[in-house]
Amino acid sequence: MERMLVLARHGQSEWNLKKLFTGWRDPDLTPLGVEEARTAGRWLKAQGSQFDVAFTSNLKRAQNTCALILESMGQSGLETIRSEALNERDYGDLAGLNKDDARERWGDAQVHEWRRSYDVPPPGGESLKDTAARVLPYYIQHILPRVMGGERVLVAAHGNSLRALVMVLDGMTTKTIASLEIATGIPLVYHLKADTTVESKLILDKDIDAAD
């Protein structure tokens, strides 16, 4: 039984490029983001991966990344389940603001705390703890049973919704999670043991030879 779980952050979005806080706002992918998603699919295909089901958020940058990955793998039309539970964290009052402008307004230390701490939310928004409170129950109720049933599962989502999952999968603490960055378009390939813990993890990045 394979029990494969692949996590992929969406490719670069228009607001990533502009260094804007995005959260639940819904910009699309840049041309680079489109290529990142297609490359992720090629890397996965080169590794011999195939999927039985995919999960994604209600935001189009993740949905389009999911579709492009599957298209590159020759799996367009695969069952794909969308859920708001997998959305990026809500950045509240910061959404739409340039990150450098936010630092000038509130100071580096305050903005860093909002972005990287576990339980301090930005004004009107969600902390990583808040994000985990919706992501993890959804994972346990809907995604994990499919993995443990032997299905090969793709989750295309966002930096912070995936950080909440990786924190649990990798056994990270509320302190060590602060340093974790999940790059756009880089698949994280997990295989799980029968007790749902991680048997192996592979990061598919540019050092993997995945030429067509």
From TrEMBL:
Its EC number is 5.4.2.11. It holds the Pfam family His_Phos_1. Pathway: Carbohydrate degradation; glycolysis; pyruvate from D-glyceraldehyde 3-phosphate: step 3/5. Substrate binds at residues 9-16, 22-23, 61, 88-91, 99, 115-116, 159-160. The keyword Isomerase applies. The record marks 158 as: Transition state stabilizer. Keywords: Gluconeogenesis, Glycolysis, Isomerase. The active site is at residues 10, 88. One of its GO terms (molecular function) is phosphoglycerate mutase activity. One of its GO terms (biological process) is glycolytic process. This is 2,3-bisphosphoglycerate-dependent phosphoglycerate mutase.
